[in-house]
């Protein structure tokens, strides 16, 4: 098929390997966290990894009551005027571990004496060398330019870290079900067929809220970089504060939901958009979908809402892949892109 | 002309009034900040106000070495599981002061004993009543749905707060020049005429970096909500990590720059996009523009880069207004929108 599609399909195995092999690193992180008692997290990342950071904002916020700030790397590089990171746990997320601006944030955190963690697929990378602790993703080489398996592995690594800080039996059991749940998501691939026509371009909106706001951002990025349609994500609440004006009859809007506390928000925006005559489609991992949508891919992994970004992210990757093929684009090698982008 | 255009033109007067009338509130904030020594800031806001929060992330980071976290309101409302805000200065920004989710964040901060500040145009609002300190914007009633004068007033209020924490004579003098500088931006309106054709729709990208990443986000929102073209902003660095794949010959890209430390980044992305055959246009407040662009509005207020989001934001509003008219849309009253959006 394609490298992108192959790597998407590797994800159950990647998740299982991470659950198995990351144990020592995760335990070390948990011990160090309890020892240093950080006040909160600062996360530096770019692209898909930045969407993993956005996921962590909700996960560490809800499960660990920790405040998460996403770093503005240019303060560390271009402006040479970094904020105080005292007492923070600073995490750098980078597939290659070679993103200079992510490295710059972690290096400054080390200078300031903060706890530092690298989440990376390259345990021998510059980022890993610069950080006190390393959580290797063990995802194997990722050869297609759009990230797939390293994205879900980053989410899972963050969830394991959250669990190490505040262990909970039920959440632990759910973490162990992630590989099976991703397999279920892969098996739902055929359900995506009726969704693709709405995404024929040139533009689309992707909406989520709470935990799956990060999924909406990631799916929008995947569609943009592999299918060349300009896809823009918003949280449902932000969307209602202005951007909703852009929609008109026929406008494609993709909803992403994992049930839970924000399900009513998705139902309410779905009803409003259907009423406007938009082409509303959706990905749902909660066994049901709002009514009136043009097409939906619905399944139920049984995962708690907090972990549905893992399954929905996989479905989003498959959707982006199908849309790319339908639009006659090679999803493995988006134009104008290299696998490692070095920005300062 | 239109309420939106009238309110855009009021901004020199609004800025002058804020400089004059906010003095007692700003001094009180500075004294209280020195007394409580917050470790950092947490800012809750939606829509345009959230872009003011993004500006503060760079401003407080660079000038005050303070870490800024943008709040995820759903953690406070939908998930009822707010992060610890201990030792933070929590700011709520809302034109109306009636945005329930912004109020929820501030109320929780009060419960946790954190310092709280409301930045609002309504000194008698629920948000103001909930907060320990209030910085009223004194902008007068804003009747057009898209925010203009309350946006620039929020930026200026944040800059005055930054100055109150770390006073600096040169920055103080620059703050006093803001009303004149906005007048200069208004006088540059005719320079926008050649930019509008590239924004005929249905999509556009807006790029900035550092301080003017917030401007790029705000201009993209203004274009989206008043002109119904789907405009998507990225920081230059994030754009190069994936989304750049979307551009093709003829794709409209608007650059926003205020010179300073990120000027070379804008020049480099401009060269790359011109090379691809994109329709690259730009707004620049630094007296010069990268070469090869289809059209530019260039002026030089002489403000430091840190304050150019004030002038460039105004130019962006004027551009959105022109594009809306060219597209036959009423910019005062975007479809599907009310002035006060209540989200939880």
Can you put this structure into words, describing what you see?
2 copies of one chain form a homodimer. Chain A has 344 residues and is an alpha/beta fold. Chain A folds into 2 domains: 174 residues, Rossmann fold (3-Layer(aba) Sandwich), CATH 3.40.50.10490; 143 residues, Glucose-6-phosphate isomerase like protein, domain 1 (Rossmann fold). In chain A, 46% of the residues lie in helices and 17% in strands. Chain A contains 14 helices and 10 strands. In chain A, β6, α11 and β7 form a beta-alpha-beta unit. Chains A and B meet through α4, β2, α5, α11 and β7 of A and α4, β2, α5, α11 and β7 of B.
Attribute tags:
homodimer; 344 residues; alpha/beta; Rossmann fold; 2 domains; five-stranded parallel sheet; 10 strands; globular
């Amino acid at each position: 098929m394609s490298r992108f599609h192959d790597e998407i399909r590797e994800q159950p195995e990647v998740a299982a390997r991470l659950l198995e092999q990351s144990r020592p690193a995760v335990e070390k992180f948990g011990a160090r966290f309890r020892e240093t008692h950080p006040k909160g997290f600062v996360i530096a990342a770019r692209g898909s990894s930045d969407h993993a950071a956005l996921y962590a904002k909700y996960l560490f916020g809800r499960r660990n009551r920790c405040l998460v700030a996403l770093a503005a790397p240019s303060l560390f590089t271009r402006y040479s005027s970094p904020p105080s990171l005292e007492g923070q746990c600073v995490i750098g997320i980078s597939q290659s571990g070679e993103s200079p601006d992510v490295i710059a944030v972690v290096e400054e955190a080390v200078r300031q004496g903060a706890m530092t963690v690298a989440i990376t697929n390259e345990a021998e990378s510059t980022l890993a060398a610069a950080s006190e602790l390393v959580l290797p993703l063990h995802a194997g080489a990722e050869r297609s330019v759009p990230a797939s398996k390293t994205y879900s592995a980053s989410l899972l690594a963050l969830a394991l870290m959250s669990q190490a800080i505040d262990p909970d039996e039920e959440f632990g059991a759910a973490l162990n079900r992630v590989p099976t749940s991703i397999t279920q998501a892969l098996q739902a691939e055929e359900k995506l067929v009726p969704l693709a026509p709405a995404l024929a371009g040139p533009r689309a909106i992707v909406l989520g809220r709470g935990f799956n706001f990060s999924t909406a951002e990631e799916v929008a990025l995947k569609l943009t970089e592999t299918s060349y349609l300009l896809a823009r994500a918003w949280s449902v609440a932000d969307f209602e504060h202005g951007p909703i004006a852009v929609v008109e009859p026929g406008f494609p809007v993709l909803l992403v939901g994992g049930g839970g506390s924000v399900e009513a928000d998705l139902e309410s925006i779905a009803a409003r958009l259907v009423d406007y005559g938009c082409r509303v489609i959706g990905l749902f991992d909660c066994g049901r979908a709002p009514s009136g949508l043009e097409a939906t891919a619905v399944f139920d992994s049984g995962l708690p809402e907090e972990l549905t970004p893992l399954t929905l992210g996989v479905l989003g990757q498959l959707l982006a892949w199908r849309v790319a093929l339908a639009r006659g684009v090679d999803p493995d090698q988006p134009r104008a892109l290299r696998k490692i982008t070095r920005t300062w």
